[in-house]
Design brief:
The complex is a heterotrimer of chains A (about 600), B (about 270) and C (about 220). Chain A has about 600 residues and is mostly helical. Chain A has a single domain, classed as Cytochrome C Oxidase, Chain A. Helices cover about 60% and strands about 0% of the residues of chain A. Chain A contains 16 helices and 2 strands. Chain A has a two-stranded antiparallel sheet. The two termini of chain A are about 40 Å apart. Chain C is mainly α. Chain C has 2 domains: about 40 residues, no CATH class; about 170 residues, Four Helix Bundle (Hemerythrin (Met), subunit A). The chains are: A mainly alpha (about 600), B alpha+beta (about 270), C mainly alpha (about 220).
Chain lengths: ~600, ~270, ~220
């Protein structure tokens, strides 16, 4: 048997600092590395959004220290319109790629997937290490654009061509900054592809005895489906990135049409198609939003079931709904382009699929409510964030139904309605998933408990805060408040909306400030928190059968055997209100 | 804790619904002939999503409160779900979501699937960083060719017309304001000189990107109402991120009677000679 | 769901063998039936050979998506504008195609030799494959030189852009294959009819690269 198993995994735990913490092959260390990379990115991303909100409502205010960061972008501390757009681009890119794609999937997934399936590591530990370091390089390249040339690009995270393709003639940051952006994204694609390959293989081939697919925790299903989406979509984004880079530095014309005159300068390219970029980008971009949210759905399902002390309602329906979301996610990209000049017939077809993708989302919501129904809810911080996730997902998801319809989208496209929608549903909801995951698995990751009081204070401010920031965006959208404007003083119908923007900015300050509570809680608990037991939440999946934190090889040479599904809570006749997945004794024998 | 979260979710729900209900912020007036069907579809969607929103949020709030752990001996229900229920709500969601979308088909079809009438007023819209230009064909009804090598803002020939050599260009009228007659179909042909822009007039319920390398036609009719608001003057704004001056890229749309429009066009023509 | 009654762990039959080679059947690894139970006393943990095949097929899936994206770009680009001038392809490409096809053949012969545990023949065919692979890359570079000598560069026209793009993208992937072959050559003594996963996985990749090249050639020459 073992003759066919090649390349045995390095068994002994490394001892040197570098092999242990830097270039580690251990999925748990790599998971934490991803987590902290995302944490760093989210801190920068939130800081950028605070600066943006500040500038939006007080465009002529002096922002302290900003001129130190960029003397040209903020002379005397007063932000220029182009610097606003640079921050906007960096905010979007950091958040979408280095936070939403990174923490829930690569962070939690790396740490937990092997343990939850009873394996000692990912299938390909070296690829795993490589994928982290390639992602890290992508982040470094992206951030370096702050310090070179004219600063970061101003074309937004979608980098629509030809604005992003014709170079610095189109605006500051469109020179070196945009090139660095493309390289960063290409690196990120490579890292994500390697990671996705690893996740899928691990899930398929490394599950322990008895762990059939339909006994997987929903987190594993979410990571698995997300990895499939990532594998198929990041390859396309990589292709688009290569073409864009060639247009920028190789003189080709994939995305740049003939006869452009930018700032009275003729552009030498000919014959390319800006819509081609949009199609390629959104072919990636729409699956990407599910890449961001699916792991959050998995975490929420896991946490809701655990703290409702109830089996998840409709396990199979949950799995099939995630599959349906993944499948349909590849057929809806055109809904970003209803007003782009795409054929209106094609647009309508896209809208039908888009409305259809609302169905599995609705199924998931109903099942979450069904899980709560009749439960015995333990309202700790992790549970609060999971409940918050459901609320935010409902709010943000429903506003998507407006944008999915071409006629209704006509007036709402490119307004704050869109900004509110995707921030609630893929931004904040996903981040609530991360918070839930952090509070839930922190004991397993760091061997200590987080502080519940601080956690709850943080939850309350954040939950109310995000609604105060993002719900009004829908109202602004009704009024036609255009997004990506650096100030609202130059269009008459926008001026009366500034007071509401001020309210949102203040809410943003408070909410952003509250995140320090979380950061403090995180780092303080890491060293001073109460020691965690093996299974502090009385949960059932395999990660709670090993010590907190788990040893290097997770199960210390033991091979867990799984006898049942992951959510066996409150089984009638069982001695406790939970039955571990690997508990062999017959439940009903008592 | 349970009561607190239930109350907070309920309050958020009530406030959100109130703001929509009371039209605290609302759609701008509609001054187009096709806008009513868009607004109708919007209202249908709002009502449907509003009902789901209230039910889901209040259901969540109620369950959190009702099923909190009270420290008693009541066990949680041991249930893995209910297939009949799954099938019911899947079917219901499918019918509601897709049905709603199909209701909007006619609205979209009337805007996009039919070309403009032959006698519609044709105007070209040109976008560049960071302004709009509008070109009327003049009495000959022909747009002259644009020459990339002549396009130059500095010399005042933004569209690159060669009025001396192209007869069709001779009477073309290039303006910074888009004037249109009321109650007459207008066909705009959208062009961009440099990067992507967008043409958005919220009161007209018209929104279309200007894509470099493409000439994209859209058509609409300003209704009688258009004269009644704000002197018939509406803002045209760019909604596609186009560079550092995106926030100030706008122009004005002026709706006038056919009579005034003819006068205005004549005056513009004279100014350009 | 369905977990109310206690069921013993299911043992599913192993997945079907791939590439139909001996030593693949009956390795005892199935979905969820305990990958790591092979260790015997001491319980050493190892990744099942199957995982390497799965990983390879997934990598090929990503590569398919990459080239699908390039293909759709090519189709759109050729369709929408009138500046498409077909680039006359250097004849040497056809020779290169033959070389690459031959390399797939030699690799298969090598695998056959490995099945029969003919170590010397196996290593000869392996070296031959790597050599042919390098010859292919050299041939592709020659094709580039010939085009450049005619004044056809990356940005000359859209068809030449796609020619360089697709040949380069394929070439980079092929270099990965050559690196894998070099690794196999280096460790050639370690393989036999029952220890051969690295060989088989490399073969999947290499044949795919051959097929991909034929696809690219058709894409570049087809008139549609």
């Amino acid at each position: 048997m073992e003759a066919h198993a090649v390349a045995t995994h390095a068994h002994a735990a490394p001892t040197g600092f570098i092999r242990k913490y830097i270039f580690s092959l251990d999925h748990k260390v790599i998971g934490k590395q991803y987590y902290f990379l995302a944490l760093f990115s989210v801190v920068v991303g939130i800081l950028l959004s605070v600066l943006m909100r500040w500038h939006l409502v007080w465009p002529d205010a002096r922002i302290p220290l900003l001129d130190k960061l960029s003397p040209t972008g903020a002379p005397g501390g007063i932000m220029t319109p182009e610097y606003y757009l640079s921050l906007l681009t960096m905010h979007g890119t950091l958040m979408v790629f280095f936070v939403l794609t990174t923490a829930p999937q690569s962070g939690f997934g790396n740490f937990l997937l092997p343990i939850q399936i009873g394996a000692e590591d990912m299938a390909f530990p070296r690829l795993n290490m490589l994928s982290f370091w390639v992602t890290f390089a992508g982040l470094v390249v992206l951030l370096s654009s702050f310090f070179v040339g004219d600063g970061p690009p101003l074309s937004g995270w979608t980098a629509y061509t030809p604005l992003s393709a014709v170079g610095s003639v189109a605006g500051p940051g469109e020179g070196t900054g945009q090139t660095l952006w493309v390289i960063s994204i290409a690196l990120f694609c490579v890292g994500s592809l390697l990671g996705a390959l690893n996740f899928i293989t691990t899930t398929l081939d490394l599950r322990t005895r008895g762990l059939t697919l339909m006994r997987l925790p929903l987190t594993c299903w979410a990571w698995f489906i997300t990895a499939v989406l990532a594998l198929l979509s990041f390859a396309v984004l990589f292709a688009a990135g290569v073409l864009l880079l060639l247009d920028r530095v190789g003189g080709t014309s994939f995305f740049v049409p003939a006869g452009l005159v930018v700032s009275d300068q003729r552009i030498a390219h000919s014959g390319g198609s800006p819509l081609l970029w949009q199609h390629l980008f959104w072919f990636f971009g729409h699956p990407e939003v599910y890449i961001a949210i699916l792991p959050g759905m998995g975490i929420t399902s896991h946490v809701l079931s655990t703290f409702s002390r109830k089996p998840i309602f409709g396990y199979r329906a949950m799995v099939y709904a995630m599959m349906a979301i993944g499948f349909l996610g590849f057929m809806v990209w055109g809904h970003h382009m209803f007003v782009s000049g795409m054929s209106p017939y094609v647009g309508f077809a896209f809208s039908v699929f888009t409305m259809a993708i609302g169905v599995p989302s609705a199924i998931k919501t109903f099942n979450w409510l069904g899980t709560l129904w009749g439960g015995k809810l333990r309202l700790n911080t992790a549970m609060l964030f999971a409940i918050g996730f459901v609320s935010l997902f409902v709010s943000g998801g429903l506003s998507g139904l407006f944008l999915a319809q071409p006629p209704v989208d006509t007036n709402l496209h490119a307004t704050y309605f869109v900004v509110g929608h995707f921030h609630l549903v893929m931004g904040v909801a996903a981040i609530f998933g991360m918070f839930a995951g952090t509070f839930f698995w922190f004991p397993k990751m760091f061997g200590r408990m987080m502080n519940e009081t601080l956690g709850k204070i943080h939850f309350w401010i954040t939950f109310v805060g995000v609604y105060c920031i993002f719900m009004p965006m829908h109202f602004l959208g009704l009024e036609g408040n255009i997004r990506r404007y650096s100030r609202f003083t130059d269009v008459n119908f926008l001026v009366p909306l500034i007071p509401l923007h001020k309210f949102m900015t203040i809410a943003a300050f408070v909410t952003a400030g509250a995140q320090f509570i979380f950061l403090f809680n995180l780092f303080w608990s890491m060293f001073k928190g109460e020691k965690a037991t093996e299974n502090p939440w009385e949960a059932t999946s395999l990660e709670w059968t090993v010590p907190s934190p788990p040893p290097f090889d997770n199960f210390a040479g033991r091979h867990p055997v799984v006898y049942r599904g992951p959510y066996e809570f409150s089984v009638p006749g069982a001695p406790k209100d939970y039955v571990m997945q690997d508990a062999p004794e017959p439940v009903a024998a008592h | 804790m349970a009561l607190a979260i239930a109350l907070v979710i309920a309050v958020i729900t009530v406030i959100s619904v109130y703001v929509f209900w009371a039209h605290v912020w609302w759609l701008p007036v509609d001054v187009s002939t096709h806008g009513a069907s868009i607004d109708h579809q919007f209202m249908m969607t709002l009502i449907m999503t509003g009902i789901v929103f209230v039910l889901a949020q209040l259901g969540l709030a109620y369950f959190v409160w009702k099923y909190r752990d009270r420290g008693d001996r009541r066990p949680a229900k041991y249930s893995h779900g209910n297939n009949a229920l799954e099938i019911t709500w899947t079917t219901a969601a499918f019918i509601v979501f897709v049905g709603l979308n199909l209701l909007g088909y006619r609205s979209w079809a009337s805007m996009r699937f039919t070309p403009a009438a032959a006698d519609a007023l044709r105007v070209e819209v040109w976008g560049e960083q960071f302004q709009f230009y509008f070109r009327y064909p003049g009495p000959d009804g022909q747009f002259g060719p644009t020459h990339v090598n002549l396009m130059n803002d500095a010399t005042g020939n933004a569209l690159g017309l060669d009025r001396d050599n192209d007869p069709a260009s001779k009477d073309d009228i290039v303006t910074a304001t888009l004037a249109i007659p009321v109650n007459r179909e207008v066909e705009l042909i959208l062009h961009s000189k440099d990067v992507g822009h967008s043409f958005y007039v919220r009161e007209l319920r018209v929104h279309q990107d200007l894509v470099p390398g493409m000439a994209i036609p859209i058509h609409f009719t300003a209704s009688e109402d258009a004269l009644n608001y704000n002197g018939g003057r509406y803002e045209i704004v760019c909604t596609q991120l186009c560079g550092l001056g995106h926030y100030k890229m706008r122009a004005f749309l002026q709706v006038m009677t056919q009579e005034d429009f003819d006068k205005w066009l004549k005056q513009q023509a004279e100014e350009q000679q | 769901m369905g977990s109310t009654t206690l069921t013993p762990p299911k043992t599913k039959p192993p997945r079907g063998t791939r590439l139909g080679k001996p030593g693949r059947s009956g390795d005892g690894f199935g979905w969820g039936d305990g990958h790591g139970f092979s260790g015997g006393p001491g319980g050493g943990w190892s990744v099942p050979a199957r995982a390497y095949r799965t990983g390879m097929w997934l990598a090929l899936g990503a590569i398919v998506m990459l080239f699908a994206a390039f293909t759709s770009a090519l189709v759109v680009r050729r369709g929408i504008s009138n500046d498409w001038v077909p680039t006359a392809l250097p004849r040497i490409l056809y020779l290169n195609t033959v070389i690459l096809a031959a390399s797939s053949l030699t690799l298969e012969l090598g695998r056959r030799a490995l099945t029969a545990d003919l170590a010397t023949q196996f290593s000869r065919w392996l070296y031959a494959t790597a050599g042919l692979g390098i010859a292919f890359v050299a041939g592709q570079l020659t094709a580039w030189h010939q085009l450049a000598a005619r004044g056809v560069y990356l940005a000359t026209n859209p068809s030449s852009s796609f020619f360089y793009l697709l040949t380069a993208a394929h070439g980079v992937h092929l270099l990965g294959g050559i690196a894998a072959l070099a690794y196999l050559c280096w460790r050639v003594a370690g393989f036999n009819s029952s220890r051969r996963t690295a060989v088989d996985v490399t073969a999947i990749y290499w044949h795919f690269m051959t097929g991909l090249w034929v696809y690219i050639l058709v894409l570049l020459t087809a008139r549609f």
